[in-house]
Every structure is written in structure tokens, then in C-alpha cells.
């Protein structure tokens, strides 16, 4: 029950941090990871947060930032023990520039 509530909290945090995509130099962006609970993390980069649930059964991402950051996000997930690529993404918008492929 606590894990489910933390997942919902992560989803709400990700949804609350919407920001429009801007032209910027993504090569300078660092992806920082902060643990929220066991297997639940927030990844912070450029323009918003990503919630990541990392476990033995895979990775669930809620909002995955901008496509040019995909490699950096994958590296951050690997450092958390996530098998990237793969898993499931739940976006909070209709924009295809927020997909990690």
C-alpha cells in the first residue's frame, strides 16, 4: 500500500513539473537521481522531473524528459540497477519529444 501511494506521489510530482520544450544545449544537462523509497527515484534534468520505479521486473518511467537526453537517462537508470532500454513509459503529455527509445 505504501509503495502504491509513493508511486502515485511520483506521478503527481512528474505531472506538476511540466515545462515547455525550449531550444537548449542538451549536452550540458546532467541527470541527477534522488531516491524516494526503495526502488522509486526521481531523476532531474532539464525542464522537469522523471519518476522511475526500478525493480527486478523492469523499469517504469513517468515522463521521460526530452528525446536528446535519452542516452543520459539510460545511463542514470543503469546506475540504479535498471535494465535499460526496455520497460514502460507513462507520459503526461502528447508530445513525442518526451520519449526514451
How many distinct helices?
Answer: 2
Distance between the termini: 31 Å
Radius of gyration: 12 Å
Helix amount: 10-25%
Helical/strand content category: alpha+beta
Q: What is the count of distinct domains? A: 1
Number of DSSP E strands: 5
Residue runs with pLDDT of under 50 for 5 or more positions: 18-22, 96-101
Q: Quick one: overall form?
A: globular
Question: Whole-number average pLDDT?
Answer: 74
Order of helices and strands: HEEEEHE
**Sheet with the most strands: spatial strand order:** 1-2-3-4-5
β-sheet strand percentage: 25-35%
The largest sheet, given as strand count, sense and whether it forms a barrel, is:
5 strands, mixed
Outline the fold blueprint.
Elements: H1 2-16, E1 32-37, E2 40-44, E3 49-55, E4 58-62, H2 70-79, E5 88-90
Parallel strand pairs: 4-5
Antiparallel strand pairs: 1-2, 2-3, 3-4
